[in-house]
Write a structure and sequence with these properties.
Elements: E1 7-13, H1 42-58, E2 64-70, H2 78-89, E3 96-102, H3 109-117, E4 121-124, H4 145-155
Parallel strand pairs: 1-2, 2-3, 3-4
Helix pairs in contact: 1-2, 2-3
Length: about 160
């Protein structure tokens, strides 16, 4: 089984709602991201579903892991996130495990319902305590630490 891909990392949203000063994607002078699609599309969700089904049918794997990544994947919003996850897992509900890497500042009850519905396991990005986290700021310069903790607690 070691020769098969068992985990996919999919960029659900190219933009990020944070402006971390050290971000390699947005703060190093490379602006090629501006020419890329902002969000993973419904059309791509349908294509991915078909490709995963095809892959699982041609390998000995019984399931696959899919990690929702970004930018910030929660920028999709609850409704669009629900549609995309539903589309990706159509017909393979028992064969796909979802995960997500998030900064958690957009977590709310609507998002929690969607994450529960699809059994999405979340990892939360944070740089440590509030002092260590000083470079993780919103686009307006406001610190993110308290918002991240609030989102983390909701996820927990």
């Amino acid at each position: 089984m070691d020769n098969y891909i068992s985990t996919l990392i999919i960029k659900f949203a190219s933009p990020c709602n944070l402006n971390c000063t050290y971000c390699y994607e947005y703060n190093t002078g490379d602006e090629s991201w501006k020419k890329k699609p902002k969000f993973f599309s419904e059309e791509n969700a349908k294509k991915l579903n078909g490709r995963i089904i095809e892959y699982l049918n041609t390998t000995p794997l019984s399931n696959i892991n899919l990690i929702c990544h970004g930018g910030e994947p929660l920028l999709l919003g609850a409704e669009r996130l629900d549609y995309i996850l539903s589309t990706i897992k159509k017909g393979i509900e028992d064969k796909i495990n979802f995960g997500m890497q998030t900064n958690a500042v957009l977590v709310n009850e609507d998002i929690i319902q969607i994450l529960r519905k699809h059994n999405v396991k979340c990892g939360v990005s944070i740089d440590g305590n509030s002092n260590h986290n000083k470079f993780r700021v919103f686009h307006n310069g406001k610190p993110t630490y308290e918002d991240t903790l609030k989102g983390y607690k909701l996820l927990n």
